[in-house]
Amino acid sequence: MAPEEIAATLNDWSLTFVGAACGEVARIPQEWRPIVFAAGPEERRRLALSLWNQGFLDLVPEFAEVLNTRCVDVRVCITDDSPVLVYVLETEDRELVSWVGYDPGTFEEPEFWESFPEAVQVFLREVHAGFVSQRREAFGVARPVDMRTVVELAGLPDGDADGEGRARISARRLLKITTDGDRLKYCLSPDLAVGEVALVYGGAIVPKDLGQELDDLLISRFAEPF
User: Fold this and answer.
1) Contact 101, 71 (CB under 8 A)
2) Which residues contact 1 (CB under 8 A, 6 or more apart)?
3) How many CB atoms sit inside 10 A of residue 37's CB?
4) Is residue 203 within 8 Å of residue 161, measured between CB atoms?
5) pLDDT tens digits, 88-128
6) Tell me: the pLDDT tens digits for 207-224?
């Protein structure tokens, strides 16, 4: 697949494609270098997907199936001064939608790390320190270095927000880990059980199952890529 076709699916990123003859190969993680030198898209896809931890795939089973069956190529690139893997998926309408997976070597532990399920922790530390689409903090799990509390984002005033049938949760204790590309924030908090996510829209907080909500979010991007 031509680089310009892939770049067109990620207008928010400036991508430098890394090939076997590219001087940037030295910057690429050792585990990713076989992807650079792979014979073609099928081998690149197979090598990239072999890096994913099963726990994370089990957390998002519908997207895992789509990733396994609809991924048509994976390319090694540099963007945001970081090595990334770009996963290109093809919809049933033959439209392309891509995700950007960041080098786990760029991982920095975010606030409220104990609120992340183990499968997500392993994914961020060992597979991709951020896996997003359309925008840098949307349709996946944002880079930990970019995660901020709701107060820091000025999405809510400093204080408490209503939870459905729950004790109030301070906006200082809600960490945004992704969005739907618009105003809906997906937040983790030490005031929720591990495995729960708070859907935050305006001043309302709705606790939900993290795996289900993340799976639905990823699939929504694949189903309606534009």
Assistant:
1) no
2) 41, 72, 73, 75, 88
3) 13
4) yes
5) 999 999 999 999 999 999 999 999 999 999 999 999 999 99
6) 999 999 999 999 999 987
